[in-house]
Specification:
Largest sheet: 10 strands, mixed
Distance between the termini: 35 Å
Helix content: 40-55%
Strand content: 5-15%
Radius of gyration: 34 Å
Amino acid sequence: LISGSYPAFYLSRFNPIAVLKGKLKVASGPILIRKGLVIFQFALSIIFIVCLLVINEQIKFTQTTSLGYNRDHILCFQWKGELYNPWTGLQEGKTNEKFESFMAGVKTLPGVLSVTNMSGNILDKIHGQSGVTWTGQEDEKKYVFQSPIVGYDFIETLEIELKEGRAFSREFNDDYSKIILNESAVKLMGLKDPIGKTIQMNGGSEIVGVVKDFHYGSLHDAIQPLIFRCEPNGKNVMIKVRAGSEQYAIESLRKLYRIHLPGYSFDFTFMDDDYQALYAAEDRVATLSQYFSIIAIIISCLGLFGLAAFTAERRMKEIGVRKILGSTSVDIIRMLTAEFTRPVVLAIFIALPVSYWIAQNWLANFAERIELRWWYFAVAAAAVLFVAWITVGLQTLKAGRVNLVQCLKEE
């Protein structure tokens, strides 16, 4: 609407008498508007290209960086039957015999390497645990620890590196009274030789192991002090399957699941797919940036091509005179190309700091992120400048080959 109404309003302001007498003065305003639009369009193109490069690199980083555990070939599903918690003292007389029988059966299936379970999901935000105290704690400070509740063989199944002590084990009959810390928790507490020490948590908990820091949830969140609690009755089951035997293992699991829970559907996912889904919003932004970059470049080139054609047409007589005075077609092309390079270069100088600011603010949403490198901006600037030269070159080549008689002829 704006682009269509502007020439209509502009033409309607002309005084007919002045036009017929040839006294119409050409204002510089329209020229500045045309060049300003070109600068604005190319600046947007550069910003979109930089954002596209940064987003793609960050997404690649999230998929390739080491999380501190192995999410490959981990099959995840939920036990849909009832479970009772023997550690809380509730539901006396109730047992989880059916669930325990199922877990034991899973371990015997071909292709299954290990099996574990937990309450919640390691890819979600973990609930915090407050009220934790220990010897040497500063009284005036209160801390909240991430505190996932996991079953036996959790450390082994996800291949989390054990730094000290041991993992939770059925052989030791581990329960809520046993905990495992990560390095950040040990550092926060200032514990030396933590194995065997007790902290005040759920009535007193003994530290049996320390694991290296690892990323739970997405890379948006920084690693926090973490305390593993043991409870073998979590409904979220995770199974490590042998590479290449996934389909056979899934069919075997489906049959076993239906035997123990007839009437319930067996719905599963793979942990690496769930992890990629954490960055679905970033994937959408990357796709949109790609489309917007293409559209912005096309619109910019159309504007620059139109401006070049308009300028070449208005300067046709000047081009003819220059050629009579000895200028070659190459000289004409160089002169016009240099003129239209200036607004593109100006757009680059405007867009680069803006794109840097946008990229920095977007990356600030990630606790673990890439570093902004110079080549992201150099590639965007070079690509836009190259496209601009091609666009202008096509028009200036036509102007440089103009027939002298035709361009000097008066109608």
